[in-house]
Amino acid sequence: MSESEDSRQTGPRTRGRPRNADADAAILSATRDLLAERGWPDLTIAEVAARAGVAKTTLYRRWPGKADLVVDAMAELFSHLEVLDRGSMLQDALATVGQYVELLQLPETQAALLALSAEADRDASLRAKVIDKVIDPQRHLVYEAWERACARGEVEGETDIDLIFDMICGTLVHRILIKGQPVDQEYLTRFVSVVLAGLAQLRLAGGI
Amino acid sequence: MSESEDSRQTGPRTRGRPRNADADAAILSATRDLLAERGWPDLTIAEVAARAGVAKTTLYRRWPGKADLVVDAMAELFSHLEVLDRGSMLQDALATVGQYVELLQLPETQAALLALSAEADRDASLRAKVIDKVIDPQRHLVYEAWERACARGEVEGETDIDLIFDMICGTLVHRILIKGQPVDQEYLTRFVSVVLAGLAQLRLAGGI
Amino acid sequence: MSESEDSRQTGPRTRGRPRNADADAAILSATRDLLAERGWPDLTIAEVAARAGVAKTTLYRRWPGKADLVVDAMAELFSHLEVLDRGSMLQDALATVGQYVELLQLPETQAALLALSAEADRDASLRAKVIDKVIDPQRHLVYEAWERACARGEVEGETDIDLIFDMICGTLVHRILIKGQPVDQEYLTRFVSVVLAGLAQLRLAGGI
Amino acid sequence: MSESEDSRQTGPRTRGRPRNADADAAILSATRDLLAERGWPDLTIAEVAARAGVAKTTLYRRWPGKADLVVDAMAELFSHLEVLDRGSMLQDALATVGQYVELLQLPETQAALLALSAEADRDASLRAKVIDKVIDPQRHLVYEAWERACARGEVEGETDIDLIFDMICGTLVHRILIKGQPVDQEYLTRFVSVVLAGLAQLRLAGGI
DNA sequence: CAGTAATCGAGACGGTACGTCGTGTCTTATA
DNA sequence: TATAAGACACGACGTACCGTCTCGATTACTG
User: Fold this and answer.
1) Which of A35, B95, B99, D24 could form a Cys-Cys staple with A111, CB 3.0–4.6 A?
2) Confidence class for position D14, pLDDT limits 50, 70, 90
3) Which residues span the domain enclosing C103?
């Protein structure tokens, strides 16, 4: 995630005026602000540039378009999650999923996440970027939580990380982003315990 | 749900030339076709009108914009689901969820569903339409499946329909629409059994 | 001018519901009012109909379009001029031209006369209507004034009515409608006396 | 008059990409061509842009609308008149007025001049542009012709330039543009001699 | 320390879709 | 048959955003 675009890792850049190092951060920050203020459809490249104090040219030199820009802006937001150690698998899960819920409830996330996925429908390379930079980095959280529970002796063996991941993210996306409903503590607790119960079942049955 | 816009149920219409009754169906059908062919961002009102053999004006007289039009087009697609009776709760669920998966895998659904939800982010009235016409009509499937299982004696009491609904729809949306991955028979079976296991847990614990 | 359109003199109309006799006057009056209020480009058939308390259909059954409607509306305005007898050729001319000036200064005339002539550029039948119904009816004023002057013995023989007519109408149209300047008493007196002087020259030289 | 719009004389232009210098001429030329081909009502901005090989945006960046565009297109046409020296006041006048007649008989002029004046009825700023750029530049012709005649000793003192100007332009506009009749050599000669006779009268009477 | 090369701000450009408006025609029920 | 009401096909409007381009000006590294 430190390289926000492919065109930027071309080795030790030498000739010519170097790029303004502050611009990237200003642009991504402006992008998030405007996503929160205006929503995806009314987010214009020109306004992002203006807000960041940068020319449109500069922005287009670094990102090919609105979608790629927003991917990187969201990636920064989603790069700070980690599995919290709360002593038990249930508590770990509650705390970690809670962090994820908070992210989903940010206005910039609400504006961007579904829009990006929608845009990615006909654009395989965009879909790859969304998955690589925003979605998949969260998958390791499930893995780590499972490993920690194993280390504690709460569970053993392997499980279906992908399925669990889809269930957690998907359910919350459906609740928060698609239906626009809040996730309170009770809903969260109930949800996590259902998932953990199912997860146990998964292990017992050995994939049915 | 058969009324595609509020302005159309105004009692015993008398004055003036009546609206062309065929146009609605032609427009919605053209909308779905073009969604599948071009995707959401390249779906233009002008082309829908042309494909439906209708003037742009006529289309705007019936729907305020692209999003509202697509809501109704999708609503028709999603109005044919029902709970299949396969003899057991597990088999009922597999068959019914399988129908839903097929809908999610249609190119028109892939083009439209997330785009609509994204567009609805800042537009409460659009969100309400999406939920009322596309999302919520599927919720009764969960209810009916549960009732049938009760009647068979497989389960008893009540359960958290909303949570189960979010889990089923959300997981599949995440898998199919967001990550763009296929749902095969194995994934489906595994998923459904995890949900049913969790559901049993939900009943036992009495909401934790 | 009593028959405002060709489609209306079809003999002794018999079958079916007869046309509303008041509608013509109401429509022409509404047309003049709206010309004065909104100007030619913003005059819409729909609004004329509404103002006249009539359906668009009714209007289109009587006039083929906006231009023809306005021709008749203007024709009524221009149908009341006559040569005033003020005792001398100069005074007759001043009084009669003064009437014409007043017509040109009406807002409805300002809105309509040049617009009609412009519209007539590519439409020979419209040009014929404008000339027959609005322009040429005034030409006889020149003829009558000349005849009266002859009868008084102020002048004798013939003159070039067409040229004099073009000069009088044209000069005032240029001043009032094209340049938008007022015609005061001094300008009018000076103008008429120049024309009369030229007219004398015309007679003397016998066409140069 | 060479500057087609006020927004274009902004001193030593520096910042940003400069405007395409050829575009103005191409647009104005396309405008005249299409005026001649289609007439004013069927002249569309989109077609002018296409014909000039320019985007609609570019055209709107330079002119606020159809009328302003046509004013400049006509201004170019009317900017080439001059008083010809034919040895006598009468011959000078015949030659110069003859040039003007030729301009009025061009199809682009027939399409545009009255339409512009009509459009200017409710738009003071447009009226000012029409007068400043198309009408008034011809007024000096009358002045120069008079001065030359004075220098020759044919006439002396001052005269009412405005009135003479209205009479010349107005009469020909009425004949050619409003009535759509041709101006042949005989009409022209007769007309000019009447005006000159009246002009002499004007001088003698000292304004009546 | 001049030359080269890439960056930057600014804004014009070609293109495309938008949603609105006016036209003149039509289709209904009613008079 | 005329009427009021209003839907209809059509086509132009003027606006907005996109992503590209062309400028002059700046800012480093290079030879």
Assistant:
1) A35
2) confident
3) 76-205
Mean pLDDT taken over chain C: 90
Whether residue C121 contacts residue D110, with contact meaning beta carbons closer than 8 Å, is answered with yes
Domain count, chain C: 1
Q: How far is CA C178 from the centre of its chain?
A: 16
Residue of B175, B186, B207 with shortest CB distance to A170: B175
Name the DSSP class of B83.
-
Q: Please report, for chain D, how many H helices and E strands are present, in that order.
A: 10, 0
CA B15 / C1′ E22 distance in Å: 22
Which residues in chain D are closer than 8 Å to C172, comparing Cβ atoms?
170
Question: Two tokens at C58?
Answer: 């009714």
Residue C4 pLDDT > 50, yes or no? no
Write down the pLDDT at residue D204.
Answer: 62
Helix spans in A105-158 (H): 107-119, 124-130, 139-152
Tokens coding D134: 């198309």
Does A91 map to a domain? yes
How many Cβ atoms are within 10 Å of B11's Cβ, its own excluded? 5
Question: Does the pLDDT of residue C158 top 90, yes or no?
Answer: no
Q: Are the CB atoms for B178 and B114 separated by under 8 Å? A: yes
Task: Establish if C26 belongs to a structural domain.
Answer: no
How far apart CA C104 and CA C101 sit, in angstroms, is 5
- Is residue B170 within 8 angstroms of chain A, CB to CB? yes
C122 touches chain D (CB under 8 A): yes
B200 interfacial to chain A (CB closer than 8 Å): yes
CA B113/CA B40 separation, integer angstroms: 9
Structure tokens at D115: 């339409």
D20: left (phi over 0), alpha (psi -120 to 50) or beta: beta
3-state DSSP call for residue A73?
helix
Between chain C and chain D, how many beta carbons pairs sit less than 8 Å apart? 152
The answer to whether the beta carbons of residues D101 and D56 sit under 8 Å apart is no
D163 Cβ neighbours under 8 A, 6+ residues apart: C171, C187, C190, C191, C194, D202
| D20, two tokens | 């395409």
Which of A111-115, B70-74, C130-134, C157-161 comes out lowest in average pLDDT? C157-161
Residue C5 maps to a domain: no
Vertex D139 angle, CA D137 and D144, to 5°? 110
Confidence of residue D208 (pLDDT cuts 50, 70, 90): very low
The pLDDT, as a whole number, for residue B204 is 63
Closest to A72 in 3D by CA, of A21, A2, A138, A173: A2
Reply yes or no on whether the pLDDT at D4 is more than 90: no
- On chain A, the residues whose CB falls within 8 A of the CB of B174 are 166, 169-170, 173
Tell me, what CATH number does A137's domain have? 1.10.357.10
Q: For residue A117, which residues of chain B lie inside 8 Å, CB to CB?
A: 114, 118, 177-178
Residues of chain A with pLDDT under 50: 1-11, 207-208
Q: Both tokens of residue A124?
A: 């395989």
DSSP state of B18: P
Max alpha carbon distance in chain B (Å)?
62
Structure tokens at D104: 């009025």
Supply the pLDDT for residue D51: 98
Contact of C35 with chain D, judged by CB distance below 8 Å, is answered with: no
Please judge whether D179 and C166 are an interchain contact, meaning their C-beta atoms are less than 8 angstroms apart. yes
Closest residue to E25 (CA, C1′): C57
pLDDT at D9 over 50: no
Which nt has its C1' nearest the CA of A16? E6
pLDDT band at B206 (very low <50, low <70, confident <90, very high): low
Mean predicted lDDT score pLDDT of chain D: 91
Tokens representing C41 are: 């480009």
More confident residue, B12 or B18: B18
Encoded tokens for C81? 């001029």
